[in-house]
Amino acid sequence: MSEHPEAPAGTTGGTGRRRVLLLAASAALLVYVLDQLTKWWVVSTMALGQRTPVVEGLLWWQFIRNPGAAFSLGENVTWLFTLVMAVVSVVIVLTLRRVRSAGWALALGLVLGGALGNLTDRLLREPGFAVGHVVDFIAVPRFAIFNIADCGVVVGVGLVVLLTLLGRELDGTRAADRTAPEEEGSRG
């Protein structure tokens, strides 16, 4: 017997809810820890600006400190990115309370881990609190230099877009399944 007999098909009860929250927390923690460990490694072993080939012509490590957003946009409003990342993190945590879908849990967990990874840099790195520069080091040809947190955000947002295009709701149901009975009833 389900803990929530009135719950729509495809949703989960209390145990399932805990599982999706655990999935979100695990994804966030994994991205956050990998991000912070790789940044620690870069700061401890590389000189600022140093470039180290990984796959000749395709991938290299290049240590930079980014005061802005992607492609160093907004370098003079670092505090604004700090505020945005803090708000995004809070919104994701509040949204996770409604999530019953593993796909949404994974997507939001990845974004949360990435946002918290870069927020940590903004809060704790030089030049000071709330205006710290993000450590970036992953470089590919003709693209921005980025980090693991950025990867988590991009993959997570990609999953959000995919889930939205597929009509998947936070509770695991499909938007089309919800509207179909209502439309049939209005035709009669």
Automatic annotation (TrEMBL):
> In terms of one coarse class, where is the protein primarily found?
membrane
Q: Which residues cross the membrane?
A: 20-42, 77-96, 103-124, 144-166
Q: Which subcellular locations apply to this protein?
A: Cell membrane
Q: Which GO terms describe its biological process?
A: proteolysis
**GO cellular component annotations, sorted alphabetically?**
plasma membrane
What is the role of the protein in this entry? This protein specifically catalyzes the removal of signal peptides from prolipoproteins.
What's this protein's name?
A: Lipoprotein signal peptidase
